[in-house]
Amino acid sequence: MAASTEQKTKNKPKRLRSLEKQQRSWGWLFLSPWLVGITLFFVLPMFQSVLYSFSKILITDNGFELESVGFKNYLYFFTESTTFGPYLTETIWQIIPSVLMILAFSTVIALVLKSNFFGRSLARAVFFFPVIIASGVVITILKDQVMMSGSSVSDMSPSYLFQAPDLVNTFSQLGIPDQLLSSITTILNQIFDLTWKSGVQILLLLAAVNNIPGSFYEVADMEGATAWEKFWKITFPTISPTMLVVITYTIIDSFTDYGNLIMQMLQDYYRNNNYAYSATIGVIYFVCILLVIGLVNLICRKFIFYASE
After folding, report:
1. CA torsion sign, 106 to 296 to 86 to 83?
2. Is residue 10 in a domain?
3. What is the value of pTM for the model shown?
4. Are 98 and 189 in contact (CB under 8 A)?
5. Contacts from 150-155 at CB under 8 Å and sequence distance 24+?
6. Residue among 62, 67, 94, 60 nearest 263 (CA)
């Protein structure tokens, strides 16, 4: 097999082989900024974080020194810490409904924005506007003064950009259980946050929906398919590869959101100059994120439709 491939390569004209080499060179040239960036801003910092997690960091006049402690930092969080395990579990379980709601909301809005109506361009700008704000100084202020509400590692709670009124006190006289009212309040608190976090997802799904050939729907109309059938038989399978990208992006974005408990805990240790524990949380959290993304991709892979298949 290898011999036949090599023979085909030799039989190609020199001009064609030269063109292929030139295309490969351009490919590596365009990839080089990404390779340099991921090496400098991800691989090296990640290596340092892993090194710190196995060390005790001693602050000195000349900077800091590392004293190896083995797995002591990891054992502390898994055996001694009374908050890390519950916070990690709660964070993971909170992300599941959040991702589903963002995915459903983004899909509906993308389908609405695809149709022609007055003010469509303005509506698209409104839904993408939070993404522009989130890349500037405004989100930094929100993270520091609004979202980082926990005062200590043992006194933290999920935070939101905007909160709904306390329905527990308002409707307590109706006889509705406080736990149910508290859950309703949490959902209302999340409505704005979920809308705020859906800008990129809407943009990706809108691009995918607009790339669906109109002939698919014309054939479905001729066969008498309903709008519901067209969505599940045409729209959803066609945009399913983009759905996987959106799910992966949303999971990462939710895990790294400054409002969740683990991120607050990490920041609290960092601000108290406990860099070793902060790095340890970061490494454990990173592994958890990889496992969740791997599991989700393993499950979703069965439902993804690629046109080339």
Report:
1. negative
2. no
3. 0.74
4. no
5. 150/261, 150/264, 150/265, 150/268, 152/268, 153/83, 153/265, 153/268, 153/269, 154/83
6. 94
Exposed, middle or buried, 308 (CB in 10 Å: 0-12/13-18/19+)? exposed
Q: Is residue 21 part of a domain?
A: no
CB neighbourhood size of 40 (10 A)? 10
pLDDT digits (tens, 9 = 90+) for 255-308: 887 778 888 888 888 888 888 899 999 999 999 999 999 999 898 888 887 766
Segment 47-84, tens digit of pLDDT: 998 999 998 888 777 777 888 888 999 999 998 888 89
Structure tokens at 250: 């949303």
- Per the structure, how many domains does the chain have? 1
Token pair in block for residue 158: 């999920």
Looking at residue 301, what is its pLDDT? 83
Q: Cα(141)–Cα(193) distance, rounded to whole angstroms?
A: 16
Query: In 3-state terms, what secondary structure has residue 199?
Result: helix
Q: How many Cβ atoms are within 10 Å of 282's Cβ, its own excluded?
A: 21
291, 95 contact by CB (below 8 A): no
Say yes or no to pLDDT of 9 above 70: no
In a domain, 216, yes or no: yes
Structural domain boundaries, residue 194: 75-303
Residue 2 has pLDDT above 80, yes or no: no
3-state SS track over 72-129 = HHHHHHHHHCCCHHHHHHHHHHHHHHHHHHHHHHHHHHHHHHHCCCCCHHHHHHHHHH
pLDDT given for residue 248 in this prediction? 92
